[in-house]
Amino acid sequence: MLARTPISSPGPLARAFERFRFNRAAICGVAIIVPMFLAILTYPLWWGVKPNDIDLLAMNAGPSAKHWFGTDGVGRDIFARVMDGGRISFFVALTSTVISAIIGFLVGAMSALAGRWADAVTMRFVDLVMTLPPVIFLLVLASIAGTGIWPTVFVISLLSWPLLARMVRSRLLELRERDFVMAARGMGAGLLHLLLRHGLPNSIDILVVFATLQIANAILLEAGLSFLGLGIAPPAASWGNMLNAARSTAVLEQYPWQWLFPGGALVTAVLAINFIGDGLRDAFDPRAELN
């Protein structure tokens, strides 16, 4: 008799990808954000107008073949500024997310794996940070750090890591009682080995979901700070400061393209990224297979 070939079942990552692939909202988010991101990155190659070029003959001009999204009060092209503002918003969001993810993972993992005293001290500090009013804390930090890209990255990074630290700690507290972690400790493995060999691989799903949702949150935070004059300062383009420049009643009523397009880009990007984050969260949830 011929021996039967065992049928290999797909791994957890393959099953997660399969669940994500059948999430219509998540796929819709990918279909929106990928072309948008590529257009933002490559627009200087195919759009001849720069964000701060002034056309005195086309001030407050409506959308046309020359200016797809119209112009603002000094004749700058709205389309170029929306694209350039998207580059700044995505750069701030991605950079601050990477920094906050690194801080959150290290704090949470060290709290879970470094011992009782490290856990107690670290978690009390995290609790202190989380009890601070986020809006007031954000405005105070922004006023201290000043305006610009890197101060904005710094402010958003400092505000975003505590929740991830608590999630990573919760995951690794259960992991540290597993036999393979206890065996590694018994063989003399140090904290760095435990963090990189066991902590990081078992926290990938948390980090991916956090990073995706945090990008959308960081875009909103950057836009809010720029709208209040504490983020990206003019003449640099930002979706937030473009909305701030168009907040007067005359512009809202007579020149709606000056706020409609940056506001629409902001809402579209945040919704698409949130759809992707929700899809990743459901895909990495093992209980989703029971649904």
What does this structure look like?
The protein is mostly helical and 291 residues long. The chain has a single domain, classed as Orthogonal Bundle (MetI-like fold), CATH 1.10.3720. Helix 3 packs parallel to helix 6, helix 6 packs across helix 10 and helix 11 runs antiparallel to helix 13. The two termini are 40 Å apart. The mean pLDDT is 82.
Q: In a few lines, what is going on in this structure?
A:
Residues 86-277 form the ABC transmembrane type-1 domain. The chain has 291 residues and is mainly α.
Q: Keywords for this structure?
A:
291 residues; 70% helix; elongated
Set down the secondary structure blueprint.
Blueprint: H1 12-21, H2 24-46, H3 78-113, H4 116-131, H5 134-145, H6 149-160, H7 162-175, H8 179-186, H9 191-199, H10 204-227, H11 239-245, H12 249-254, H13 257-284
Helix pairs in contact: 1-13, 2-3, 2-13, 3-4, 3-6, 3-7, 3-9, 3-10, 3-13, 4-7, 5-6, 6-10, 10-11, 10-13, 11-13
